[in-house]
């Protein structure tokens, strides 16, 4: 992938101007056997040419799709369209030994969070009760359920399509084969989590921007002691305390002890903006 830009430049040098060659992307996102290409507006007319070269250069890519906009709507639907090759958007993507099946035209998948999913899975203790408030297709829950030894993971998801693939992925990875480890719940976690009689030892708040409106729910569902993983965005001139203050503000009602144990910088999100996770201990 490091040489992608140079390879495309060489192959299309007789078709594109020097200016157009310079703005060819340095790579593409590959999920399963599909490539998702992001192009500058000036290169859109050459989409088919670039897609054809990708299929020719990369044997493990069977189809090419173009990103046409940002994720949108309540269900964060990706804006992509098919270009060339095999038009089969339901793929199986492997990560850390976990299989994720989903439709790339309907479900967003953030490959940049790969290390964060692994990091949190290694923190889980035996017999924990975990509430995954934004489970999606099982981004965190599948790895936690497969590699850890939690007592139960309540995986809440508002999008019925994502919940369908979550259930498919639980079967695909044989996680609930012997007992129900992951319990998928359709609906808004602000409502559904309050219906669970058990209390959480760990809460995962894996969605951006920071889900501040769910913090009150967290205080109501946790046990006497719980770890909370709170994701958010920080600008270069901001500190973790700017996110931590969200919890301190709500805690005025509950008067619990809230400690910031660790700030993990997940990835760059944009110019001078960082995706971070706060590990919080509430006792």
What does this structure look like?
It is a single chain. This protein is α/β, with parallel strands linked by helices and 283 residues long. The protein folds into 2 domains: 4-88, Met-10+ protein-like domains (GMP Synthetase, Chain A, domain 3, 2-Layer Sandwich), CATH 3.30.300; 110-282, Vaccinia Virus protein VP39 (Rossmann fold, 3-Layer(aba) Sandwich). It is 28% helix and 34% strand. It has 9 helices and 13 strands. The chain has helices at residues 4-11, 18-22, 47-57, 114-121, 141-147, 160-172, 189-192, 215-221, 240-254; strands spanning 29-31, 34-37, 63-72, 77-85, 90-95, 98-103, 129-132, 152-157, 182-186, 200-205, 222-235, 258-270, 273-282. A 7-stranded mixed sheet has the order 9-8-7-10-11-13-12, with helices on both faces. Strand 5 (90-95) and strand 6 (98-103) form a beta hairpin. The protein is globular and about 65 Å long. The termini are far apart. The model has no long low-confidence stretch (mean pLDDT 94).
How do the strands and helices of this protein lay out in sequence?
Layout (H helix, E strand, L loop, with lengths): L3 H8 L6 H5 L6 E3 L2 E4 L9 H11 L5 E10 L4 E9 L4 E6 L2 E6 L10 H8 L7 E4 L8 H7 L4 E6 L2 H13 L9 E5 L2 H4 L7 E6 L9 H7 E14 L4 H15 L3 E13 L2 E10 L1
Parallel strand pairs: 2-3, 7-8, 7-10, 8-9, 10-11
Antiparallel strand pairs: 1-2, 3-4, 5-6, 11-13, 12-13
């Amino acid at each position: 992938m490091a040489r992608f830009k140079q390879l495309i430049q060489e192959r299309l040098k007789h078709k594109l101007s020097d200016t157009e060659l310079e703005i060819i992307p340095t790579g593409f996102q590959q999920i399963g056997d599909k490539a998702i290409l992001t192009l500058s507006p000036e290169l859109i007319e050459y989409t088919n040419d670039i897609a054809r070269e990708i299929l020719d250069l990369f044997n493990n890519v069977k189809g090419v799709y173009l990103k046409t906009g940002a994720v949108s709507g309540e269900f964060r639907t990706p804006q992509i369209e098919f270009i060339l090759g095999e038009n089969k958007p339901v793929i199986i993507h492997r990560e850390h030994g976990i299989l994720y099946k989903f439709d790339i035209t309907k479900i967003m998948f953030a490959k940049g969070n790969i290390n964060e999913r692994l990091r949190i899975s290694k923190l889980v203790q035996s017999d924990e009760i975990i509430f995954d408030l934004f489970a999606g297709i099982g981004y965190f829950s599948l790895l936690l359920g497969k590699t850890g030894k939690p007592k139960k993971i309540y995986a809440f998801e508002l999008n019925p399509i994502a919940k369908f693939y979550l259930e498919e992925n639980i079967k695909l990875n044989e996680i609930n084969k012997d007992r129900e480890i992951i319990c998928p719940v359709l609906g808004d976690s602000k409502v559904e989590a309050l219906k669970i009689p058990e209390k959480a030892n760990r809460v995962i708040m894996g969605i951006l921007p920071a889900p501040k409106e769910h913090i009150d729910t967290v205080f109501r569902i946790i046990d006497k002691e719980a770890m909370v993983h709170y994701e958010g965005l920080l600008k270069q001139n901001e500190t973790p305390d700017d996110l931590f203050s969200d919890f301190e503000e709500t805690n005025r009602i509950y008067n619990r002890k809230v400690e910031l144990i660790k700030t993990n910088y997940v990835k760059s999100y944009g110019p001078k903006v960082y995706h971070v996770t706060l590990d919080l201990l509430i006792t």
